[in-house]
Amino acid sequence: MDHITLALPQEPADGIAGWAADLVDAMGAPGAGLAVALENLFPPLPSEIILPLAGFAAGQGVISLFAALFWTTLGSVVGAVALYWIGALIGRERMYAIWAKLPLVKTADLERTEEWFAKHGTKAVFLGRMVPIFRSLISVPAGLERMPLPTFLVLTGLGSLVWNAVLVLSGYWLGDQWDKVGDYVGVISKAVLVMVVLAMAFYIVVRLRSRGTAQHRRPS
């Protein structure tokens, strides 16, 4: 296989980009799929770097565009299935036992979450594949709730194909400017993370206040 020549302003010789480029160089399109599978298992590995790089490699003729889309989507599904089975192995009863030992939470909170997932789980799995950070996390509750595996596979495959296609094609069309994709997606990822942190902080404050009020009203 010919060595990948990445005509970038800064050669991706190290970091995540260099690691992904080495995988594609050594394995071709399956290397891009492996990188994406690992990204699902370890969310700190950014798909906004791996996928546009795969698209750029396709634009350079190192791999075909079809192979880039096929293998990265397959990698997404494989990584998601691994997390699904982690959730399934934890199981509902064990999750409730762990939840009962956590501070600031109630069993009713978990029950409401289950009810929400039962109503909206299919949309959550499909759309969650397109949201940074939650792309990986959504697979765990799907396993916990034992969503039928064929349904999970179809939803994950379709959602992953949409997300992967956007980033792979962006890298393909942008050419040696492929790294700009990560800048834009990175902003979205940070915004999502900030919203999650703020929501958790708000939840904790409300829970502490409600607990304090209940203790204050408790008769001596």
From TrEMBL:
Residues 45-172 form the VTT domain. It is a multi-pass membrane protein. The keyword Protease does not apply. It is found in: Cell membrane. This is DedA family protein. Its main location: membrane. Keywords: Cell membrane, Membrane, Transmembrane, Transmembrane helix. Belongs to the DedA family. The chain crosses the membrane at residues 62-86, 152-175, 187-208. InterPro entries: DedA_domain (IPR051311), VTT_dom (IPR032816). Pfam families: VTT_dom.
